[in-house]
Specification:
about 550 residues, alpha+beta, Alpha-Beta Plaits, repeat, Probable RNA-binding protein 46 isoform X3, RNA-binding, RNA binding, Nucleotide-bd_a/b_plait_sf
Length: about 550
């Protein structure tokens, strides 16, 4: 006797994979496990379990799987990943040809299984000579919003963001290190879901919406990297932020000891600009001091106190490689939107307004860019367009194989890309762009300062631009002119130091005429080994906000850098 419900279920399963490669094997998989499979918005979803009646597994249960062979499907992937633990869902990114796009997201029913999968299945040989790349996935719900007037407080920013976007949960604003009554010119906006954040990011594209008559810059915020609970259980260092610039290390040490009622509870203090790391002899004292001092007032400033978060030493070394002692020891007071404030994990050293994602460069795929929800630890992976194939893509997106540097503009390359190629080929480190703005009458003008890790001086363009994109493009052109790099591509690295043929004024805000952003390279500028840097070039004084401990100890970064 045929069971009607069973027949209907079988028909639905057949329809969900009808016409797909490996259709027979996919049907066998669904028959064996009972999991449903459906294709929507450029992805094929396998799961959830048929007997699942709980909430969706929490954050931290999902992993990212890359380097998947294009003709490899769920019938091969599921048996591999279900060895570790029970699967809640597998989302395989697909293109219109029926092939996969080289990556997938696998969600387990608990975090322990997800962590185990990362440990055991990274570099798993799915086929002969084909190794999978497996790492933790993060569902990003937070946006960075720059260009906010510094006079606005948290409540004003929160209300304004709720007016122009939906799903706003919270706004994080940090006071200026110089003037605590003002903000730093940017904020982090938390949304109720990744989809809400992706839709807000699309709506806030520069030039489409202004806040308080100011053009804003919007990008994904860097996610916090999870630290193993066992590691965090041993931390006895506190991170203290929002300090006054005048507050000394001795003042902080006395403050902590007095709160605990002990004389020598604190081993040492390392203060950098407006934040500090406080080392305690005993973890219990550190926890008690955190509870007693968080949101308290020190030298007239309300401070935030949290446990410091260990970071990977290799990541820190990669960030600091090539930097001079001057760069590592000083911070320029006037640059308030430094890299440490633009990301959760400041040691990463990413450019906030990055170009194409590294994932697209590693795994060429259909579609415009990687979609925001990605893997922790992959450099630049949060520079995409939202959550991967989760319904946030517009219908007009290009559906061709992605080639970095050539998308949508033929063979013409942006100056940023030419400069980055030059720096990478010559081991100079990736250029880092810092956005600044000012108001001239009715118009808001923008300027990017550029830092190249291998050079001791920061490059400061001599002209302001009307848009953020033009400012970044001109900044790259300006640096190229200083280094003698032709616009059609970088030459070999000169054997000696290079510099502009004319000194660069230290202040770009001194009544300079506004011209087109895409200015031509000044004539007569070339890479000459007999020249040195101009003495008037501004000095880079930004430093990575991680505190390096003595040899053998872990590195720490704040637990609340948004």
């Amino acid at each position: 006797m045929t069971v009607p419900g069973h027949t209907t279920n079988m028909e639905e399963k057949q329809q969900s994979v009808s016409g797909t490669p490996n259709e027979a094997n996919l049907l066998k998989l669904m028959e064996r496990t009972g999991y449903p499979m459906v294709q929507e918005n450029g992805q094929r979803k396998y799961g959830p379990p048929p007997d699942w009646n709980k909430q969706t597994p929490p954050r931290g249960c999902e992993i990212f799987v890359g380097k998947i062979p294009r003709d490899c499907y769920e019938d091969e992937l599921v048996p591999v990943f279900e060895r570790v633990g029970k699967l809640y869902e597998l989302r395989l990114m697909m293109d219109f040809s029926g092939s996969n796009r080289g990556y997938a997201f696998v969600m387990y029913t608990n975090r322990a299984d997800a962590q185990k999968a990362v440990r055991e299945l990274n570099n798993f040989e799915i086929r002969k000579g084909r190794l999978l790349g497996v790492c933790t996935s993060v569902d990003n719900c937070r946006l960075f919003v720059g260009g906010i007037p510094k006079t606005k407080n948290r409540e004003e920013i929160l209300q304004e963001m709720k007016k122009v976007t939906e799903g706003v949960v919270d706004v994080i604003v940090y006071p200026s290190a110089v003037d605590k009554s003002k903000n730093r010119g940017f904020a982090f906006v938390e949304y109720e879901s990744h989809r809400a954040a992706a839709m807000a990011r699309r709506k806030l594209i520069p030039g489409r919406i202004q806040l308080w008559s100011h053009q804003i810059a919007v990008d994904w915020a860097e996610p916090e990297q999870d630290v193993d609970p066992d590691t965090m259980s041993k931390v006895k260092i506190l991170y203290v932020r929002n300090l006054m610039l005048s507050t000394t290390e001795e003042t902080i040490q006395k403050f902590m000891n007095s709160q605990l009622g002990k004389e020598n509870a604190v081993e040492r203090v390392k203060k950098i600009k407006d934040y500090a790391f406080v080392h305690f002899k005993d973890r219990d004292d550190a926890l008690q001091a955190m509870d007693l001092t968080n949101n308290s007032t020190l030298d007239g400033a309300r401070v935030e106190v949290v446990l410091a978060k260990p970071v990977d030493k290799n990541d820190y070394r990669n960030y600091t490689r090539g930097k001079s002692a001057l760069q590592q020891d000083e911070i320029e007071d006037t640059l308030e939107a430094q890299l440490k404030h633009l990301s959760f994990e400041a040691f990463t050293g990413y450019s906030l307004y990055g170009d194409q994602t590294m994932l697209n460069q590693i795994f060429p795929q259909s579609g415009r860019e990687f979609q925001g929800r990605t893997a922790v630890g992959i450099r630049g992976a949060l520079r995409g367009r939202g959550r991967g194939a989760a319904g946030s893509r517009g219908a007009g997106n290009q559906r061709t194989t992605f080639v970095p540097g050539l998308m949508g503009r033929g063979l013409r390359r942006y100056p940023q890309e030419i400069l980055d190629d030059f720096c990478q080929k010559n081991g100079l480190g990736s250029p880092m762009y810092q956005l600044h703005s000012t108001v001239n009458g009715e118009a808001q003008l923008f300027l990017y300062k550029v830092t190249i890790p291998a050079y001791p001086n920061q490059f400061q363009p001599n002209k302001l631009c009307r848009t953020v994109d033009d400012a970044k493009c001109y900044a790259a052109e300006f640096v190229m002119s200083q280094l003698g790099i032709p616009m059609d591509g970088p030459p070999e690295m000169p054997t000696g130091p290079v510099v502009a043929s004319a000194p660069v004024p230290p202040n770009p805000y001194q009544g300079r005429p506004i011209g087109p952003a895409y200015a031509s390279i000044p004539s007569g500028v070339s890479a000459r080994p007999d020249l040195t840097f101009a003495s008037t070039m501004p000095v880079v004084t930004s430093a990575p906000p991680s505190y390096v401990m003595a040899p053998g100890e872990p590195l720490y970064i704040n637990d609340n850098l948004h």
